[in-house]
Amino acid sequence: MHDFHTHFIPKDVLNWLKENRNAVNAEWINKEENKEQFLVINQKWGFELKKAFIDFELYMQKQEQANVEHSMISPIPQLFLYDFPLEITTEISRVYNQSLAHLISKTPEKLSAVGTVPLANSDQAAQVLNEAMNIGLKGAIIGPGIAQHMLSDSFFQPFFEEANRLKAILFIHPLLCEDPRLKRRMMPNLIGVPWETTVCATDLLVSGIVDKYPDVKILFAHGGGFLPYQIGRLDKGYEQWDMVSSNLQAPPSEYLRRFWYDTVLWNQDSIDFLVKTVGEDRVVAGSDYPFDLCVWPPTEMSDKGAHSLLDCAIK
After folding, report:
1. CA-CA distance, 161 to 92, in Å (whole number)?
2. What is the pLDDT of residues 162-171, one digit of tens each?
3. Which CATH code fits 2-7+56-310?
4. Where are the extended beta strands (E) located within the chain?
5. How distant is the alpha carbon of residue 172 from its chain centre?
6. What percent of the chain has pLDDT over 90?
């Protein structure tokens, strides 16, 4: 069994946060009894610092207990820090990436990793991606864009050109939705997170970016959000409107099969539909471990998606 959607925070990253707590407005808060401290970044990115996030031996032990043979570790979205000055985002990216490279070097048969990049500056993001892959990472986990730009914008051209040259995995992971209508009953997490993925995935698909950068391997979190379920609507729009079809060489349903998707869906019927829609070679097992809404252990999946994503790099 594999796990392509799992998060960890190395010790060096925590130390960096403590050393730079004022610069990133980091707070460690005791919120509830029987829970670990919460780490809050800039008064909005709060999450529980569960031991499995920061204790590598415990993390590996839990993977083994769940019969996970290979995990692709990702940085956590709360530490992308895109809204901070470039030097801060670049510095934590390099610290995070170097720390992950060190961890996976200990057991490469059991671990791989993607890094993080300062996405708000496309040229710098390209440089940090290059550095990360040169030290053994498979690519980068990135958000669905930044405040002013979606990923298909020309703003990101230098980054995508480098990702394409490197044949990088870009694991697109949503940030919490800022829609004011959702600020109740946990809706930012319940539907805001997959909605952000849906918007990003639809924009990338309709933009034709996979034709422009065919060697970038785009992996969508949480089963691609709501996009696979609504692909018939996109196909109909392709038939009706030039604004949908002008950048595409085939219907959207064909492009849907050129991305990868994890299984963080909590529903076997949904996973079955996803596999039927995109093919089992485009679906990889994922858990979102150790966040609260993780699927643990990850769903058993065919190895076809894992091998197509990693070019048979795992045994």
Report:
1. 23
2. 999 999 999 9
3. 3.20.20.140
4. 2-7, 26-29, 38-41, 47-48, 70-74, 111-113, 139-142, 145-146, 149-150, 169-172, 217-220, 260-262, 283-284
5. 4
6. 79
